[in-house]
Amino acid sequence: MEALFSLVVGVLTACGIYLLLRGRTFPVIIGLSLLSYAVNLFLFSSGGLRTNSAPVIGASISPTDPLPHALVLTAIVIGFAMTAFVVILAVRARSELGSDHVDGQQGEEGDTR
Amino acid sequence: MSQHLLALPIVLPMAAALVLLLLSNRTSERHQRQLSVAFTALLLLINLALLSRASGGELAFYALGNWQAPYGIILMLDRLSALMLTITAVLAVGCVIFACAGDDQRGAYFHGVFQLQLMGLNGAFLTGDIFNLFVFFEILLLASYALLMHGGGKARVGAGLHYVILNLAGSALFLISLGILYGATGTLNMADMARRVADMPNDQAALVTAGGLLLIVVFSLKAALLPLYFWLPRTYAAAPAPVAALFAIMTKVGLYAILRVQTLIFADSPAEEPIDAWLWWSGLATLVLGAVGVLAARDLRILIAYLVLISVGTLLAGTALQSPAANTALLYYLPHTTLICGALFLVAELIGQQRAKAGTRLVRARRLYQRFLLGGLFLVGAVAVAGLPPLAGALGKLMLMQAVEDSARLWLWPLLLLAGLCALIALSRAGSVLFWASYKGEVAAGRVSGAQLAGVLWLLASAPLLVIFGGPMSEYTQATARQLAQPQVVIAELLGDAPTARATRFQAIQGDAP
């Protein structure tokens, strides 16, 4: 399970960073979301990975650490708000700057970055 | 009541923000301004009360919801946080008075968002829990995004997009480092984490070092250290003047976080050495780049933004020295450079107003309407920020230079003095273009309003005041540095002899289970 979990986190992070380095706002935002998924999963694993154990005392034989669950919830809420904000900002930038390039300038002709 | 005083710097701006946001469409702008100034002044009084309480050397803790450490979230007041709170409130009063002259009406909800920003700043300075620090960072960042966009316009949206995306990536890194540190130590309370890092088995030490270095990378992004500073000049130059002035404290939040983490959690840990080495060399490099930047700047606002970078470089190179003498010096230099950089952003706005189309660009333009007044303000600000005697900048730099020892002197002395010289050259060149190289005859319109002048004078007054009260001030910073050098006192006072190992915690929980 650990290997699969770390593979998923690694692939998500790699995709997120690749998209984050693109030139247009849409892939950048998708990259940020992927990165935040990876981070949330990583944070979840920081209390240790266990099967068949709930973060509630008495619900299972050995309870797992409940704190990472709370941290992930906080991180999800904050990440959600930030993503909403950056989407609105990107739309605004598209209309004000006349381009969806993060630098506000269209690249060369035929540039598909 | 007095034990709840510690939570007030967070609760008051939050309540103020709610009131101001709810009232924003119902009352006249005059009432909103009065309320906003009154709330900010009240915050200053509270923070001064906390400063006087902390100056005795007593540590104060406040357990939110009465959940005791190390399980609950703790607010912690020591001399360093009290000093930072006071600087924030002083700067905020100047900014909000200046904004009342008309900048607040360029967009919606200025005063409410401004109070939210203060809430985030105060929370970041007070919290003793590292995940809570992340939450307050997000609050202050979200408020800063809105403030940066205040008034709109091409430049702001363009700079804002970079700023937001960079900070979101920074937040992701912050969470990763928190995950690593929590996984390795099993706690989020800074004092508890310090205790566990100190007796960490060797196989976990590498994990802690990695987490610690990642944390420093995140804080360096906020503080605008060398490879991570590219967002700063454009952002600060694009922001509305009162917001840019308030942002002068934002880089210092990063610095505060570095100082806190370095002295409390990672003192005497394997992470200490790489952190110090990185901070020292990138601090010096930032200093050099700031010096090049001020010479290359073609706009007064960009020039001031690079002056902020010079101060960041100076301060961070100082933190890397890790000696009480260096911390004394940089804590003395910090309020001065923050308030003066804030004041200079405001002065730049006033100059831009009277030069019509030319704005703050360093080109020949019409003569200023009030050139003696603005020239005088600019002169005081320039002398202060370049670190010339008789103002406090010179004292701060002198103290820092005395604090450096041996081979480090060879690096810091020439670079610091050279950066000062570059700042002086750039500022005098800017001043002569702005005030002397003007077309004869026509004079641009636009007077400085009373509120604007009051805001600028409030901030500029700190330069002479910090010299006049240099004695008590340096005694305070000395005591702060001593307190920072003894993290074990914080740990002992907060935690007493609570159990340490993570295993015991889980056994205890399981023992209670039915």
TrEMBL record, chain A:
One of its GO terms (cellular component) is plasma membrane. It is a multi-pass membrane protein. Coiled coil: none annotated. It is found in: Cell membrane. The chain crosses the membrane at residues 6-21, 28-49, 69-91. Signal peptide: none annotated. Its main location: membrane. The keyword Membrane applies. Keywords: Cell membrane, Membrane, Transmembrane, Transmembrane helix. Belongs to the CPA3 antiporters (TC 2.A.63) subunit C family. This is Multisubunit potassium/proton antiporter, PhaC subunit. It comes from Billgrantia gudaonensis. The lineage of its organism: Bacteria, Pseudomonadati, Pseudomonadota, Gammaproteobacteria, Oceanospirillales.
Automatic annotation (TrEMBL), chain B:
Residues 129-415 form the NADH:quinone oxidoreductase/Mrp antiporter transmembrane domain. The chain crosses the membrane at residues 6-23, 35-54, 80-101, 108-125, 131-148, 160-185, 205-232, 239-258, 278-296, 303-321, 333-351, 372-391, 411-436, 448-469. GO terms for molecular function: NADH dehydrogenase (ubiquinone) activity. GO terms for cellular component: plasma membrane. Coiled coil: none annotated. One of its GO terms (biological process) is ATP synthesis coupled electron transport. It is a multi-pass membrane protein. Keywords: Cell membrane, Membrane, Transmembrane, Transmembrane helix. It holds the Pfam family Proton_antipo_M. It is found in: Cell membrane; Membrane. Belongs to the CPA3 antiporters (TC 2.A.63) subunit D family. This is Multisubunit potassium/proton antiporter, PhaD subunit (TC 2.A.63.1.1). It comes from Billgrantia gudaonensis.
